Automatic annotation (TrEMBL):
Lineage: Bacteria, Pseudomonadati, Pseudomonadota, Gammaproteobacteria, Enterobacterales
Protein name: Cupin domain-containing protein
Chain ranges of the Cupin type-2 domain: 32-90
Organism of origin: Rahnella contaminans
PANTHER family on file: H2HPP ISOMERASE
Pfam families associated with the record: Cupin_2
SUPFAM superfamilies: RmlC-like cupins
Length: 106
């Protein structure tokens, strides 16, 4: 499967956050999430395993009881059901990979 960013509209999630569902199939899914400075990814959890790769920007992430600042090139792992969220400190883009797929995003 080939996915071209130009063919995928940005879903405006409000409050400075946008999402593009990229490649997905089988048990995996890739999602690009854009944040404006000051935008918040509220604390939440889900059944999915999640890897987040920071493509650009700076973020303050909380995963479970830990909070750290991350920037371009850093990667985060979230196990199923762990509470996590972020605050965007500098406009940026994240690449999230989920398994299984987030059916609620499709």
């Amino acid at each position: 499967m080939f996915i071209y960013k130009k063919d995928i509209p940005l879903q405006d999630l409000g409050d400075g956050v946008g999402r593009r569902v990229l490649a997905h199939g089988g048990t995996m899914m890739a999602v690009e999430v854009s944040f404006e400075t000051g935008a918040i990814g509220p604390m939440h959890n889900h059944v999915h395993e999640q890897l987040t790769y920071v493509l650009s920007g700076r973020f303050k992430f909380t995963i479970g009881e830990e909070t750290h600042e991350v920037s371009a090139g850093d990667t985060l792992y979230k196990k199923p059901y762990i509470m996590h969220g972020c605050v965007c400190l500098e406009k940026g883009v994240l690449l999230d990979t989920f398994t299984p797929q987030r059916q609620d995003f499709l």
